[in-house]
Structures are given as C-alpha cells and as structure tokens.
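Data availability (excerpt). The following record was deposited with the supplementary files.
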Amino acid sequence: MKKQLQFPPVDLRKVTRYSIRGRKNKTSIGAFGHAVGPGAGARLFLESLPKFLKASDLNEFIRLAVQARKKNKPFHLLLGAHTIKVGLSPIIIDLMRRQIITGLSFNGAGLIHDLELAFFGGTSEDVQAGLTDGSFGMARETGELCAEVAQLAESEKIGLGAACGLSINRRNAKYRKLSVFAVAQEFGLPVTVHIGIGTDIINQHPNYDPETTASASYRDFRILCSICEQVDRGGVVANIGSAVILPEVFLKALTVARNLKRGTSRLTTANFDMIEHYRPNVNVVARPTLRAGRGFNFVGHHEIMIPLLAWGLKAGLSR
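Predicted structure:
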C-alpha cells in the first residue's frame, strides 16, 4: 500500500505582499455615477451614469453614431417585428424625421404588424387562443393587404418595403402617420423586407403568392447590399430584436458589398435585445467589425432601451 500523502497547512506568514498604493485598480470613485435633478436632460443624465461596463458602452455607441451622422454616413436599423408591437413606431419615425436614421430593414412580420396598425390601429393577436381553434393568423384583411403589397411591388418593380409604404399612403390608411413604412416612403428613405417561407401568418392564406413576394424581397436584399456598401465606409448598423433572419441577411449583404467594393472597411454595429442570442452577437457585433470597427451588445427591454437610445442620439446631435 502506498504511503498516504500529507497536506499540512501552509504558513501564510511567508506570502509576499505589496502596498495598495502601487496597485492599478479597475474601479475608482472618479468613475462613479452621480445623482441628477428631476429636470435633467438627456445629456446630463447620460453623463451621470457610472463609467463602467454597459453604461460606458452605451455612451460610446451614441458618440460613434452621432459622429457618423455628422459626417453624413448612414445609420441603418435592422428591426424585429417586436419593435412595432411594443409601440416604438413614433420613436423610430422621429429619428427618421430628424435625419438620424437613414433606413430600415424588417423581417416579414414587421410588414404585417405595420400594415395592421396603419389600417386598423391594432395588431398582435392572442396566439394561444387562436392556435387552439385554428383561427391564429387567419384574419382575411391582413392576407388581402399583404397580397396587394406583393402585387404592387411586382407591377412597380420595387421591393416589398417600398411597396408597403406606397400602398399605405396611396390608400390613405387612417393611421398612416404612425406607420414606419409609410413615413419612410414619404421621406424617400429605404425600407427593406426579408421574408421566410412558412414563418409568417400570410403564408396560411389562399391569396399568398410566394413567387411574387419572394421576388420583391429579393429586390430588397439587393438594395440592402447597396446600403451595406456605404455602411461599410464609416456607417452604423443596429440590430434591434431580430434573433435569426436579419443577422443572417445582414452578413450576406455585407459580404456582397465587400466583394463589389474593395477597400478598407470601417463601421460601428450594435445589438439590442432582451436576451443574448448567438447570431446577433456573431453576425452583427463580432464578425463584421473584426479589425474594422467597434461592435456593442446591449441587453434590455426594447420599450425602455430604444427610447433611451433615441434620447441620447438627439442630445448628441444637438450639440
């Protein structure tokens, strides 16, 4: 039998120590946050935040975005449909009106929610109740509106995003002033829509035309490739609430842009979502900015984070 190992307690009197006065600290009171009064504006509020971690990142992202827009570089948003559902349209429209945001990209659900809001003033049904009896997504008017948009895109040879805004404005939808598609079309800003087959409720309708819809969405992909050519030369992209489709589409569009327009890439990207997801972190934050810029990731609810971001952007550009 082997001899049992012995582990006597070490003598801590023998350890080497040093003075804290010579140590480099990660935290110091000079970087602490400070209280502001109830009437403080965006600039004072953001400056009051602790200069650590995500508070520091948010201020840096706002600074870089403001810097890009002052140089007339694009600031493009990739938006999941949830941003429309939680009432952020007025915030996004205000940023477009102030020429802070220069374009938008959505998945198919974003188009659906915007159309329903523009014409009927409400969207987002009870999925569980509708799934139980087979009525989920079966609203006749939604299917008809989306089919009209696809047909308009085909007849005008434009993308789905442009066709959606044009349709809403031509038909004078009651709530068109709250439609990001309609306002973008009015301002002449690009909006692209990137669909998946089987991912949206309109795929369930008999008047859904997959060929026409896909063809129009493909035009939008080519438009996004063109946008990425300019974004990749000092612009900004923020992905807000799309976990899969838009990060994947953006990566391909950026690849096409870099293939067609060789040179030095330089861009700033950010991802805003309620939880961490693989594709946004890799395809938006990390890969595009490798040796080419800065990427940021922020976790928080859209209905809080995006108004805060907009507040900071407007304050920065007002200087």
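Summary of structural features: The first strand starts at residue 75 and ends at 79.
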